[in-house]
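Task: sequence design from structure.
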């Protein structure tokens, strides 16, 4: 049933995102065409006009990229609120599915569109930069990075893996905090949207405060230790364990928060749901 819910959710949201993806790729192609011209005489009236067009379409492209990721967030919020707490909630909760299936299906579809948006953005950038010199430079840079990754040793490799893991977790579960805030907002008899906004800012403030306090407490000994370091090698030997500790704590806090957001949302839907 989870697969069917996801298929329905993708179908319901695909039109919006496909149009945005087409717009992003179209602007990337237009910019690539403009970038292929070499406007040597910048003071001629034609070239001044063309340079203005290049700047204008580059600006439109940047706006479209911003709009794409803003749209992902808006659609994630709108679909969750409308389907579960709006008029469609009566229909959704008559389906033979568990509340966790509803939450997980929407979370995974949100992650899916976020991932596709990132891929489309990367493709559009590659389209705009698809010149032999640029591609050659990019290939060389990637080769250097791969070689550096193979030679820096396990410590740095594990740091890169930890960073990638943190990014993957944030990609998959980025919608859960939004869902939890929307659910908390439903506890208000009136002004539920306002309640969701206040929950969002309140939860973020609390999380940032607690996280900063924990990381700050760990960082103090390291900062004191820096004063006694005399060589780059000694700094490296001190920094790597410190960074590992920070990343593991950050990952642990993130996992706990995501679990908490999920169960807050599930509890409110199961025990406190009021569609009136």
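Answer:
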């Amino acid at each position: 049933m989870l697969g069917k819910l996801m298929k329905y959710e993708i179908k319901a949201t695909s039109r919006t995102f496909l149009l945005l993806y087409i717009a992003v790729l179209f602007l990337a192609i237009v910019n690539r065409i403009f970038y292929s011209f070499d406007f040597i005489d910048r003071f001629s009236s034609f070239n001044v006009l063309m340079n203005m067009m290049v700047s204008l379409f580059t600006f439109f492209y940047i706006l479209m990229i911003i709009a794409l990721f803003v749209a992902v967030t808006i659609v994630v919020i709108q679909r969750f609120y409308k389907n579960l707490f709006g008029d469609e909630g009566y229909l959704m909760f008559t389906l033979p599915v568990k509340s966790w299936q509803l939450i997980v299906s929407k979370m995974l579809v949100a992650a899916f569109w976020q991932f596709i948006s990132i891929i489309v953005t990367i493709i559009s950038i590659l389209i705009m930069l698809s010149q032999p010199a640029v591609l050659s430079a990019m290939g060389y840079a990637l080769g250097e990075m791969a070689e550096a990754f193979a030679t820096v040793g396990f410590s740095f490799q594990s740091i890169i893996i930890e960073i990638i893991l943190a990014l993957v977790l944030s990609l998959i579960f980025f919608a859960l905090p939004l869902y939890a805030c929307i659910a908390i907002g439903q506890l208000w008899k009136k002004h539920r949207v306002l309640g969701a906004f206040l929950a969002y800012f309140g939860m973020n403030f609390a999380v940032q405060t607690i996280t900063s306090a924990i990381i700050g407490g760990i960082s103090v000994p390291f900062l004191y230790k820096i004063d006694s370091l005399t060589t780059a090698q000694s700094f490296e030997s001190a920094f790597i364990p410190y960074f590992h500790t920070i990343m593991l704590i950050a990952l642990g806090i993130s996992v706990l928060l995501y679990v908490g957001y999920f169960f807050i949302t599930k509890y409110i839907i199961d025990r406190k749901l009021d569609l009136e």
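Residues 1-150 form one domain.
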